[in-house]
Automatic annotation (TrEMBL), chain A:
SNARE involved in targeting and fusion of ER-derived transport vesicles with the Golgi complex as well as Golgi-derived retrograde transport vesicles with the ER. It is a single-pass type IV membrane protein. Residues 134-194 form the V-SNARE coiled-coil homology domain. The keyword Ubl conjugation does not apply. It comes from Gadus morhua. This is SEC22 homolog B, vesicle trafficking protein a. Keywords: Coiled coil, Endoplasmic reticulum, Golgi apparatus, Membrane, Protein transport, Transmembrane, Transmembrane helix, Transport. It is found in: Endoplasmic reticulum membrane; Golgi apparatus, cis-Golgi network membrane; Golgi apparatus, trans-Golgi network membrane; Melanosome. GO terms for biological process: endoplasmic reticulum to Golgi vesicle-mediated transport; protein transport; retrograde vesicle-mediated transport, Golgi to endoplasmic reticulum. Gene3D superfamilies: 1.20.5.110, Longin domain. InterPro entries: Longin-like_dom_sf, Longin_dom, Sec22, V_SNARE_CC. GO terms for molecular function: SNAP receptor activity.
UniProtKB/TrEMBL annotation, chain B:
Gene3D superfamilies: beta-sandwich domain of Sec23/24, Sec23/Sec24 helical domain, Severin, von Willebrand factor, type A domain, Zn-finger domain of Sec23/24. It comes from the Eukaryota. Residues 240-476 form the Sec23/Sec24 trunk domain. Residues 167-203 form the Zinc finger Sec23/Sec24-type domain. It is found in: Cytoplasm, Cytosol; Cytoplasmic vesicle, COPII-coated vesicle membrane; Endoplasmic reticulum membrane. This is SEC24 homolog A, COPII coat complex component. One of its GO terms (biological process) is COPII-coated vesicle cargo loading. Pfam families: Sec23_BS, Sec23_helical, Sec23_trunk, zf-Sec23_Sec24. GO terms for cellular component: COPII vesicle coat; cytosol; endoplasmic reticulum exit site; endoplasmic reticulum membrane.
């Protein structure tokens, strides 16, 4: 089952549209996942894989990137991947048709929040078991979902942090070595003065 | 002598009332003997008080009264030579015509011109003291309340809106950059609230308006005291919610009898396309009597489906996802429902009302998204949780008990609602006691509004119906903000301690407002914690973060800057008498509930006495007889007396409990301008309107008659008068009858007349233009009552004659004498 859906611009992680969570389930903190999704958007770039599944315990993020826009959905881990990506493909087609050209120019977050209505409608049709059968045929035409990369959300989010930690450590080292250099210079001059001084006294 | 005052800590309930008996106004036997000797001026007899007859020149014969100008300098006492107008000494006992010719403007704080030029509009943001005292002890000496009055979401004709990826704020206190910060150089600015020096971000160096670089002082944020930002995504906890409207309608027998359902459904049908929102807007309907009825409006159905839930003990939603539907997609179904609703319940015999369970259902339905619930209720809830019992005993009305809620169910539910961004607006249409004190909590803590139409009936009360229709139109189509929060910051040293209005205070200074509407006002009280030495000015900033009905997250920021003064005279010179009155009224409402009505009345009287006493003893250098007030406070005793005679605070058995509680609600959540109309109505004579001094607004001529004092002495048989008391009332005359009212003679004037005929005469046009203009100035539609001199409604008109004596209350002059006596003690 789809828990929430977000659409963002890859270039700067600006959220473009989202579907509000409904049927709030007890014991599940969707806020945490939303924050993770936002962090993820900020991490994404040109080099990111364009289709990916990220596991986070009993739920999974699925996202696809097309035309510089990332479509992300949070599903229960047991929800078929095939369906999730079918859902995202559907959203992508519709979204690109309606707003595709405006995406690069907007600055306000959630500029296309009205797309929510369509997302909800799609979500409903994916939940409905009667229509689910119809989607089966479409899904076979999709590329083999098994080949889609799977990773862990924590790892992905921390990868950047580890890099930035390395970066700060490196810059720390640089500054330390600079300090060492200047200290050494200072000591050198002092010892030179010390050597020269007695000579001057004479 | 310990005395009851609003500025001291609240008196714990049950504590003995302080103050000598003479302090208790309204208890006639305890009045000093000299007091009772004043001749009673009742009915239409012009009140002529003996001390006043000594100065007959100030009381010209009746017909010239309204031509008299208040210029008033000839009455002023030529004692203090070069004082500003605000400090001109006025002897209230001698000077009778205190009202200025037009509306009373807010005082202009003595700031350098460049600061005052950009200062916040006083209608949006004003302070009771437009010059802030330097220390708490100075404030205590002035005996005036210190507080702010806000109308943060007021409809504005012009509002600069800024979109930028970073909103510049102080790094330590989070104040938004504003016109009153100082730039140390091009790259650094100093916060005017906490004085931290901040960097100017690179982006801020560019000015999008002038398209120039390197002039951060010219940015719109630094040029406008009221500004709106489009918020970046850091200001969103979740994607912006859609506009969601849920209507909860009482359909019990009693409700159907009043005929209100037709009006609501028709009004919704008429305005359904004007509901603020976008393509995401959702609507839903719940009706209730002893059971709860839901309406399935899902797309694809041929007609709406009614689902009845009779288990009100444990309420559940029958089909959670089709009760709240997209308005755009299901408009036809919604319209079908609205057309059929009034007929479905036409013959109902069900008399019970399960309001509590219906509200629980509404909360369940809206909690995933948040939104607005509009509840229409016509009787005391009698079933399920939240059922209430009648607490009003008409014989006990005088004691004004039961101002506090009978159950905490409504408050608790309101807090749950607030947590899920749901606001509940209550429309109460009832002839019977409904316990508004308890029901009102549902709106108060969820930042909703309360509307009250006593004795609403579609046939018996046409004026009420008209008002209800117009109010609904405004209610449905006005701007609305969702999932809002407001924070008010002030310069270090000042601290905000009490808030007034409808909201829930989350984390000490953050007001949680699930909805915010343009007709909501707020007030806060402040104290001076640290001395404001070395400060020329202090600033206040209110920031309101909300989601517009179009799904945009926005921040509206208002900043007010005021000077700091160190002398008592300057504090008095800056007093804003209307703001003081407004804040005092809010404080007195709290006091009535926490202590008693008598306590609140004493406290208000003492506020007037204490401030004038302090002025007399500390600010005046030359002592002189009489009751002296600075010109800026000359209306204070009049306003306090008006408050004492307000439905909220008056004594006697004529005020129904719900009326009283509603009046209290209004005093607390109306913006100051509207509250002032309620406190002190304006009276005009309208049978001699002329174009002299008229306003010209878009090619219409609006006559401007002068305001009259609210006293019977200003009325006369041959005149026609208009009283603007929120709802416009008028009393009547002869040539006026044919020219304006279109009836041949006085006897032909019907008892109930609510409209002016559109006649082609100049008089008629002038009158209608004037009334139309008065109506345009306020959001809600005041109904017009045309009252004959012998009409039973005359009582309502006369009740507003606050300067006159009534059975249980003093006349203005008596009140002044009482004050003088207390001051010279």
């Amino acid at each position: 089952m789809v828990l929430f859906t977000m659409i963002a611009r890859v270039a700067d992680g600006l959220p473009l549209a989202a579907s509000m969570q409904e049927n709030e389930q007890p014991g599940r903190d969707l806020q945490k996942y939303q924050n993770q999704a936002k962090q993820l958007f900020r991490k994404l770039n040109e080099q990111s894989p364009d289709r990916c599944t990220l596991e986070a315990g009993d739920v999974s993020f699925h996202y696809l990137i097309e035309h510089g826009v990332c479509y992300l959905t949070l599903c229960e881990a047991v929800y078929p991947k095939k369906m999730a990506f079918g859902f995202l493909e559907d959203l992508q087609t519709e979204f690109y048709d309606n707003y595709g050209r405006k995406v690069p120019t907007v600055t306000r977050p959630y500029s296309f929040i009205e797309f929510d209505t369509y997302i909800q409608k799609m979500k409903k049709s994916y939940i409905d078991s009667r229509t689910r059968r119809n989607f089966g045929s479409i899904n076979t035409e999709l590329q083999d979902v098994q080949r889609i990369m799977v990773a862990n959300i924590e790892e992905v989010l921390q990868r950047g942090e580890a890099l930035s930690a390395l970066d700060t450590k490196a810059s720390n080292l640089t500054s330390l070595s600079k300090k060492y250099r200047s200290d050494a210079k200072y000591l050198n001059t002092r010892s030179t003065y010390a050597k020269v001084q007695p000579h001057l006294c004479f | 002598m310990s005395r009851c005052s609003l500025f001291s800590l609240p008196v714990p309930a049950g504590a003995p009332q302080s103050g000598p008996p003479g302090r208790h106004l309204g208890h006639y036997p305890s009045l000093p003997p000299g007091y009772n000797n004043t001749p009673a001026s009742q009915g239409a007899a012009p009140p002529m008080h003996p001390p006043m007859q000594t100065a007959p020149s100030q009381y010209p014969p009746q017909p010239q009264l309204y031509q008299q100008v208040t210029g008033a300098s000839r009455f002023s006492l030529p004692l203090q030579g070069n004082t500003p107008e605000a400090l001109r000494v006025v002897n209230l006992l001698q000077e009778r015509n205190l009202l200025p010719a037009g509306p009373i403007p807010a005082p202009t704080p003595p700031l350098p011109q460049d600061l005052q030029k950009v200062n916040c509009n006083p209608e949006v943001f004003r302070c009771t003291l437009s010059s802030i005292p330097q220390t708490q002890s100075l404030l205590n000496k002035a005996k005036l309340p210190l507080g702010l009055l806000l109308h943060p979401f007021k409809d504005l004709s012009q509002l600069p809106v800024v979109t930028s990826s970073t909103i510049v704020r102080c790094r330590s206190c989070r104040t938004y950059i504003n016109p009153f910060v100082s730039f140390l150089d091009q790259r650094r600015w100093k916060c005017n609230l906490c004085f931290r020096v901040n960097d100017v971000p690179e982006e801020f160096m560019y000015n999008p308006i002038s398209r120039s670089y390197g002039e951060p002082q010219k940015r719109p944020e630094v040029q406008n005291a009221t500004i709106e930002f489009i918020a970046p995504s850091e200001y969103m906890l979740r994607p912006p919610q859609p506009a969601v409207y849920l209507f909860v309608l009482d359909v019990s027998h009693n409700a159907v009898e009043t005929g209100y359902l037709n009006v609501v459904c028709q009004s919704l049908l008429d305005n359904i396309s004007a509901l603020p929102g976008d393509t995401r807007t959702k609507v839903g309907f719940i009706t209730f009597d002893s059971t709860i009825h839901f309406y399935n409006l899902q797309e694809g159905l041929s007609q709406p489906q009614m689902l009845i839930v009779s288990d009100i003990e444990e309420i559940f939603l029958p089909t959670p996802d089709s009760l709240l539907v997209n308005l755009n997609e299901c408009k036809e179904l919604v319209q079908d429902l609205l057309k059929s609703l009034p007929h479905i319940f036409e013959k109902t015999m069900e008399t019970q009302s399960a309001l509590g369970p219906a509200l629980q259902a509404a909360f369940k339905l809206l909690s995933p998204t948040g939104g607005r619930v509009s509840v229409f209720q016509t009787q005391l809830p009698s079933m399920g949780v939240g059922a209430l019992k009648s607490r009003e005993d008409p014989n006990q009305r005088a004691s004004a008990k039961h101002l506090a809620p009978a159950t905490d169910f409504y408050k608790k539910l309101a807090l749950d609602c607030s947590g899920q961004q749901v606001a509940v607006d209550l429309f109460l249409l009832s002839a019977q006691y409904c316990d508004l004190a308890s029901l009102g909590c549902i709106s108060r803590y969820s930042a909703g509004s309360v509307y009250y139409y006593p004795s609403y009936h579609h046939q018996h009360n046409p004026a009420q119906v008209e008002r209800f229709e117009k109010d609904l139109k405004r209610y449905l189509t006005r701007k609305i903000g969702f999932e809002a929060v407001m924070r008010i910051r002030c310069t270090k040293g000042l601290s905000i301690h009490t808030f007034h209005g409808n909201f829930f205070v989350r984390s000490t200074d953050l007001l949680s407002l699930p909805n915010v509407n343009p007709d909501a006002g707020f007030a806060v009280q402040m104290s001076i914690e640290e001395n404001l030495v070395d400060m020329q000015v202090v600033s206040f900033q209110a920031a309101l973060l909300y989601t517009s009905s179009k799904g945009e997250r926005r921040i509206r920021v208002h900043t007010l800057c005021l000077p700091v003064v160190n002398s008592l005279t300057d504090v008095f010179a800056g007093a804003d008498v209307q703001a003081v009155t407004g804040l005092l009224a809010s404080m007195a409402v709290d006091r009535s509930v926490s202590a008693s009505l008598g306590d609140a009345r004493d406290a208000m009287t003492n506020a007037a006495i204490d401030s004038l006493a302090s002025y007399r003893h500390a600010a005046l250098t030359i002592q002189q007889p009489g009751l002296l007030a600075p010109a800026c406070l000359r209306l204070f005793p009049l306003y306090v007396l008006a408050l004492l005679k307000q439905k909220a605070f008056r004594t006697g058995t004529s005020t129904r409990l719900d009326d009283r509680v509603f009046s209290m609600c209004q005093l607390k959540f109306q913006p100051l301008v509207y509250a002032m109309l309620m406190i002190h109505p304006t009276l005009y004579r309208v049978d001699d309107l002329s174009d002299q001094g008229a306003l010209n607004i878009s090619e219409r001529t609006i006559p401007q008659p002068r305001e009259l004092q609210l006293s019977v002495e200003k009325l006369c048989r041959e005149g026609a008068f208009l009283m603007d008391a929120g709802s416009v009332r008028r009393s009547c005359n002869p040539s006026f009858l044919t020219q304006v009212l279109g009836v041949p003679d006085y006897a032909a004037l019907p008892q109930n007349m609510y409209q002016l005929p559109e006649l082609e005469t100049a008089e008629s046009q002038r009158t209608r233009a004037f009334i139309g203009w008065l109506r345009e100035q306020r959001p809600f539609y005041p109904s017009l009552h045309i009252i004959r001199d012998d009409s039973p409604q005359k009582g309502d008109f006369m009740q507003n004659m606050i300067e006159d004596r009534t059975e249980s209350a003093l006349s203005y002059y008596e009140f002044l004498l009482h004050m003088q006596q207390q001051i010279s003690k």
